[in-house]
Design goal:
Structural class of chain A: alpha/beta
Number of helices of chain B: 10
CATH superfamily of one domain in chain A: FAD/NAD(P)-binding domain
Distance between the termini of chain A: 28 Å
Shape of chain A: globular
Strand content of chain A: 15-25%
CATH topology of one domain in chain A: FAD/NAD(P)-binding domain
Bound molecules: flavin-adenine dinucleotide
Distance between the termini of chain B: 57 Å
Largest sheet of chain A: 7 strands, mixed
CATH class of one domain in chain A: Alpha Beta
Helix content of chain B: 25-40%
Mean pLDDT of chain A: 96
Helix content of chain A: 10-25%
Oligomer: heterodimer
Largest interface: A-B, 135 and 114 residues
Order of helices and strands of chain B: HHHHEHHHHEEHHEEE
Largest sheet of chain B: 3 strands, antiparallel
Radius of gyration of chain B: 27 Å
Structural class of chain B: alpha+beta
Mean pLDDT of chain B: 86
Strand content of chain B: 5-15%
Chain lengths: 569, 295
């Protein structure tokens, strides 16, 4: 049951909301988490996409690994449709956002938020991006204790090497780059991903002759089937909390529920933030709409924490008519990215790997990386073929490959691939390695989220997102794409394809920046008792590293400030 | 043909086309949408008899052979929702028809600009109904300007659809405009996602998730036969080890193979995992590669 009032109401149970919930509840506060999407793997919702189910969940006993196994089929098309940002009801489509060009925003709805899709990569920010780029009001050193605490909880460790990572590492070494073994990265080089994924069982070593069913009866840890983007509930048969991929639903949600002070209310889309009418308004609660029934309800709170992600948090602020501030919604960074793919001949692979295929469907999805503070990063990615086709060859800012001349470029083809070329390249699915380019784009005020009266869905005006990289942003990305092509060539790739992707957002941050919209405790400058604790407060794109660890570290830090400011004994 | 004649002919053609579009009966409209989507699928993931000799007969069939165009219409119609609360919680936008119209507009623009490589022709329509035993003359007649382009010119038309604003209206005061970029995403991006995914392997994808029947037989999905994807798996015995050196903290245990012999110390793949080093860091000498003003 949802009560009328709580100490804290948190909007969004994504990567960061559950961290705040856990911290506050552990300190004894009563916490309600309102989440727009469904709750998977919970006995209160045995068929979360088909029936409205119960109202809320407050108990660790509700969590069920068995149900998660059933619901997370790891079939990519089905999972993408179930997880992407939209209502739980499977008969209904995605919630609409307007995004320029033919790029897209990838976010999920559901307890766990976009970490349901995420690949578990949990590196720290680049120290120089925090301390030298001039965006952050706090120091990198302030983050370290939180990094250490959360890395321990999420079991962050160097990712295992399978064939696709070995190809990448050999290429990086041959291209002259050094190995990095550091947690705080200041120089370029390659290293395994620090992944929030339990390492695979040693019985899965290629020499160990494993011949089992990969279930929890046999082993622990990642089972080395690429499925992280499709939810990854492995090992099957493991209890909810023992799944290998430590998405926030698996790591922080059980911690939060375990306190006994947290209620999670899924299928609840927050549409308004209530304030008293004072000169500096104070947040007093929120209004939410049930996504199944359309019923609207309100709840009071001593503090309200927005953790709806970098698009919905500013949208909610704007739609709630909260005070204007020239940086609300502005400064969006998305790690303006690209995709570079290498294809190998069987003979070449035989010499490189001792077998004639790469088999990109094996391993953790993303397990190898290249860092370059000042430019961003590269990471290998194994995908199932559908996601690979849309990410790698589905969209391009430079049109179709047949329209583009690549003379003098380090890639053989660039652009959107179609027809015969597409089919020929994908026929080599088992002989390819894909590299994602993730660049250090900088916050610009023109980029971000606005709303417009009339362009609305059932939750009010929809987010209209603008994103146009600067000249320097483009150069950083292009330089990284070249480095990626060099690495693949150095590893012997016979064909290199660059997507030249249009802006596509997998990592979204800095739309409610610390130092601009919120203070360094994450409380809004213009509304008291209103905090923001999700990736939108990140003051920049962290230099390029995957943002979730830092988002969660900032959220954990915000939770301590909330206690100090409003609940000190 | 002299330029003015061409323009005049195009003008007439455009006029006829627009008149035709306006007068479409509902059934015809659906046929027109279907043909337009078939035309995109045929351009993006065509039949490729050319690949038979090079790669084998399993690489010949394309999207039309598995009903991808029809499913894409359904998917696009049910895939998004927007703001019609008075219609109840399920107010979805039917996007397929506006998408098809936008593609026609793009096709006409392409031809007007003279950027098509081949003249539009009914002969490009024929392959779109060949595989369909139930196809009728009305289906053939429903082909719009986009479907009459050559497959490559269709792609060129998709390439210029970006700058077209498309409106979807349910009533006077509810008009939603989206930009043409979404069209490319739907008819190229999503078409590929669906085609290369497991979609074809369901007996009943339109059923609720818990009652879907899926046989995980890699042979049952045409695209899996083409990519060699071995099907949905619970795991692989694929562990090679952990990157590291003999002196550092990253990996541990015996050397399985060496990745960089020349490095000092050499970089190996080791049997046991290690950890990252909590290093001191210094950022004072950080230099921007491509400087930029701070905002
Ligand atoms: C394919 C993919 C792979 C990724 N891999 C990685 C990775 O390996 N490492 C990494 O660091 N990052 C990764 N990311 C990015 C990462 O998942 C996100 O950066 C992170 O989840 C953002 O956290 P957040 O809390 O800001 O937002 P989210 O995780 O998106 O959570 C926001 C939550 O709020 C809910 N919500 C929104 N609006 C409302 C509302 N009005 N009322 C109630 N609830 C609402 C949403 O449904 C959602 O659950 C990946 C992303 C994608 C798409």
């Amino acid at each position: 049951m949802v009560a009328d009032a709580y100490d804290a109401v948190i909007v969004g149970a994504g990567a960061d909301g559950p961290v705040v919930a856990w911290k506050l509840a552990e300190a004894g506060l009563s916490v309600l988490v309102l989440e727009a999407g469904p709750f998977h793997g919970n006995k209160q919702w045995p068929k979360p996409h088909e029936d409205p189910g119960a109202e809320s969940s407050s108990s660790l006993d509700d969590l069920s690994g068995e149900l998660l196994d059933e619901q997370f089929t790891t079939r990519e098309f089905e999972m993408v449709n179930n997880l992407l940002f939209g209502p739980a009801d499977h008969r209904r489509g995605f919630w609409m956002r307007k995004f320029p060009g033919d790029g897209a925003i990838l976010q999920c709805a559901g307890v766990g938020g976009t970490t349901l899709h995420y690949t578990g990569c949990h590196p720290r920010a680049y120290p120089a991006a925090i301390d030298e780029q001039g965006h952050w009001p706090i120091d990198y050193a302030d983050l370290i204790p939180y990094y250490q605490e959360l890395e321990a909880i999420c079991e962050v460790a160097p990712a295992p090497v399978t064939a696709k990572e070995e190809v990448f590492f050999r290429g990086a070494a041959a291209a002259g780059w050094n190995l990095i073994d550091e947690a705080n990265v200041t120089d370029p080089g390659y290293r395994p991903q620090p992944n929030a994924i339990r390492q695979p069982d040693e019985v899965l070593h290629v020499d160990a002759g494993y011949d089992g069913d990969y279930s929890a009866a046999d082993l622990t840890g990642h089972t080395l089937a690429v499925s992280d983007i499709s939810g990854d509930p492995h090992p099957r048969g493991a209890p909810f909390e023992e799944k290998a991929k430590r998405s926030s639903n698996v790591s922080f949600v059980p911690l939060a529920l375990g306190t006994g002070n947290v209620t999670i209310r899924p299928n609840a889309f927050v549409v308004d933030v209530a304030t008293d009418g004072g000169p500096t308004p104070e947040a007093t609660g929120v209004t939410f709409r049930d996504t199944w029934s359309g019923a609207v309800a309100s709840v009071d709170a001593e503090v309200v924490v927005l953790a709806a992600g970098a698009i919905e948090t500013p949208r909610l602020w704007l739609n709630a008519g909260l005070p204007e501030n020239e940086w609300v919604g502005r400064g969006l960074t998305i790690h303006f990215g690209d995709n570079v793919m290498g294809l190998w001949d069987e003979d070449e692979l035989e010499g490189l790997l001792g077998r004639r295929t790469v088999e990109q469907q094996e391993g953790e999805d993303i397990a190898a990386r290249f860092d370059y503070p000042g430019l961003g990063m590269l990471q290998t990615v194994g995908t199932t073929p559908g996601i690979g086709a849309i990410l790698g060859f589905g969209a391009s800012a430079s049109g179709f490959a047949f329209q583009n001349d690549t003379t003098g470029e380090p890639w053989d083809t660039t652009g959107r691939l179609v027809g015969q070329e597409l089919k020929r390249l994908l026929a080599g699915y088992r002989r390819m390695v894909q590299v994602l380019v993730v660049s250090d784009d900088r916050p610009h005020r023109r980029n971000g989220v606005t709303v417009q009266r009339g362009v609305a869905d059932e939750h009010g005006p929809i987010p209209l997102v603008n994103y146009r990289p600067s000249e320097a942003d483009r150069k950083r990305r292009d330089e990284l794409a070249r480095i990626a092509a060099d690495i693949l060539r150095a590893a012997g790739a016979t064909h290199v394809h660059r997507s030249d992707s249009p802006p596509t957002a997998l990592h979204l941050h800095s739309t409610m920046r610390m130092g601009k919209v919120v203070d360094d405790a994450c409380e809004a400058y213009d509304v008291d008792r209103l905090f923001v604790a999700d990736h939108s407060v990140l003051a920049n794109g962290l230099g390029g590293p995957n943002p979730t660890l830092t988002g969660q570290a900032v959220a954990a830090r915000a939770a301590e400030h909330i206690q100090e400011r409003y609940f000190a004994p | 043909m002299p330029r003015h004649l061409l323009v005049e002919r195009l003008g007439r053609y455009l006029y006829e086309k627009i008149r035709h579009l306006v007068h479409y009966k509902r059934g015809d409209r659906d046929l027109h949408t279907k043909m337009t989507f078939r035309a995109t699928v045929d351009a993006v993931i065509p039949r490729t008899p050319e690949l038979e000799a090079e790669l084998g007969p399993e690489h010949v069939p394309g999207g039309l052979d598995i009903g991808l165009a029809e499913y894409l219409v359904t998917y696009v119609n049910h895939g998004f929702q927007l703001g019609f609360p008075q219609l109840g919680p399920r107010g979805t936008l039917s996007f397929a028809r506006p998408v098809a119209k936008a593609l026609d507009v793009a096709a006409l623009k392409l031809v007007l600009r003279g950027h098509n490589a081949e003249p539009p022709s009914r002969t490009f329509v024929r392959p779109l109904i060949e595989a369909d035993a139930t196809a009728s003359t009305s289906l053939f007649a429903a082909a719009g300007p986009f479907a009459r382009l050559s497959p490559e010119d269709r792609l060129r038309a998709i390439g210029i659809v970006d700058d077209i604003e498309i409106s979807v209206a349910r009533s006077e005061d509810e008009l939603f405009e989206f930009n043409g970029g979404l069209v490319g995403q739907l008819v190229v991006g999503f078409a590929k996602l669906i085609y290369y995914s497991e979609w074809q392997g369901y007996e009943n994808y339109d059923e609720p998730p818990s009652t879907r029947i899926f046989s995980d037989d890699p042979g049952a999905v045409q695209s899996w036969r083409q990519t060699g994807f071995p099907g949905i798996a619970n795991g692989y015995p694929a562990l090679r080890g952990y990157l590291g050196t003999e002196t550092g903290s990253l990996g541990d245990g015996e050397v399985w193979t060496t990745v960089d012999v020349a490095a000092e110390p050499p970089v190996h793949i080791l049997h046991e995992p290690g950890r990252f080093r909590e290093n001191d860091y210094e950022t004072a000498d950080f230099e921007e590669v491509f400087p930029e003003e701070t905002t």
